[in-house]
Design a protein that fits this description.
The protein is of the alpha/beta class and about 375 residues long. It contains twelve helices and five strands. Helix 9 packs parallel to helix 12.
């Protein structure tokens, strides 16, 4: 009797040991599967916008803001022509997509469409997540040129969104770490007063309607009348505001380039960003295209003897353009001067290591080249 009890107890212990061993092995498998799943689904929290200045530190922040599944990012843009508006981006885009392994979007069925406007805030929540799951596929469907698909080339998104600092965060959130580390960004800058005036007159002669909700630039017929109220609000209260103001005239927010670059560097490396003064491109297009060639890793010899085009965009409407008074032009230039000084220092020194091919950024030409009325 005692012996049988001992044997049964022994068997019980053996069973318990076997069960423990099974649970340990199974637990390891579960942890392994969990690790593999985490390798597929990356989660990054950008909602606080308090990422470290180092992109490597930023990419280690994890939460549930954006998740990346087994998607093919090779058929999405990996080159971005970020802006600035009215600084020659259309000309640069047209040169780029003539290359055999660079493609635009298929907007309007052309395959050469410059601007997708995907990263302009309408498709994203404030934390960088997509508002609707199907938007990823919608963006991907816009890039289907066979010559660039499946790793044969690279797609180019030419939407000038540098002025929308939220868009930089959205790009960061949208791409997984291994892809965004390889993204390339090209920016062309123009003297701020001339850029602002060009943007205003373009909007007026192409969109026609003042108080147009889709473009706050057209809210104010007297946009270039710099009165004391505007000086107090735009030049003081919101002097360091980065990006478009959703509630007010955004005219004075789009050419403070240094604020936009300071936001960019929170998410991406400086050597991912190639910056030009548009004056350099038109003065020496061969040198500019060589810088682009090296930056994008294109074959030697590309970009020589390119007649860099300048598009004047004939007006769609014969809307009368309000005069630009010299006192207002000069007041706006005075407002931009400290931002320009910071910009030159940031690009050439303080912003970090630029791409090896980036030319030295010389100061803009005088704002006095912009015609005005005494």
């Amino acid at each position: 009797m005692t012996l049988s009890i001992l044997l049964s107890s022994s068997n019980m212990y053996i069973v318990i040991i076997i069960l423990l061993l099974i649970s340990i092995v199974y637990g390891k498998n579960l942890r392994s599967e969990s690790t593999n799943e985490e390798a597929i689904n990356y989660n990054y929290n950008n909602s606080s916008r308090s990422l470290a200045s180092s992109p490597s530190s930023a990419s280690s922040t994890t939460s549930a803001a954006a998740s990346y599944t087994k998607r093919d990012y090779s058929n999405l843009p990996q080159v971005f022509l970020l802006g600035a508006q009215k600084a020659g981006t259309e000309s640069m885009f047209d040169v780029l997509i003539k290359h055999k392994v660079l493609c635009g979007s298929n907007g309007e069925g052309s395959g050469n469409w410059k601007e997708s406007h995907f990263f302009r805030g309408l498709n994203f929540n404030n934390d960088g997540t997509l508002k609707k799951p199907g938007l990823w596929d919608l963006y991907q469907k816009g890039y289907d040129d066979p010559k660039c698909m499946n790793g044969k080339g690279r797609f180019v998104d030419g939407t000038p969104i540098l002025h929308s600092c939220q868009a930089i965060m959205d790009i960061y959130s949208f791409y997984p770490p291994d892809v965004r580390e390889k993204l390339k960004f090209i920016v062309i800058l123009r003297e701020p007063v001339s850029r602002d005036w060009s943007g205003f007159t373009f909007g007026l002669t192409h969109y026609h309607h003042f108080n147009e909700k889709s473009d706050p630039i057209l809210k104010d017929k007297d946009a270039f009348v710099i009165n004391e109220k505007k000086k107090e609000y735009f030049f003081k209260k919101k002097a360091e505001h980065c990006g478009d103001d959703p509630d007010d005239l955004n005219l004075y927010f789009r050419s403070r380039y240094v604020l936009q670059f300071e936001e960019f560097i929170k998410y991406f490396r400086r050597d991912q960003l190639l910056i030009f003064n548009v004056e350099f491109i038109f003065d020496d297009p061969d040198a500019a295209m060589e810088a682009v060639r090296l930056f994008l890793g294109l074959e030697e010899g590309w970009g020589k003897n390119i007649n860099f085009p300048w598009y004047s965009h004939p007006p769609n409407f014969k809307e009368k353009v309000p005069p630009l008074y010299c006192k207002d032009r000069d007041a706006l230039a005075a407002f931009y001067k400290p931002f320009n000084d910071r910009l030159y220092s940031w690009i050439n020194k303080e912003g970090g290591q630029p791409p090896a091919s980036e030319p030295y950024f010389k100061p803009f030409k005088s704002h006095e080249d912009v015609a005005c009325v005494p």
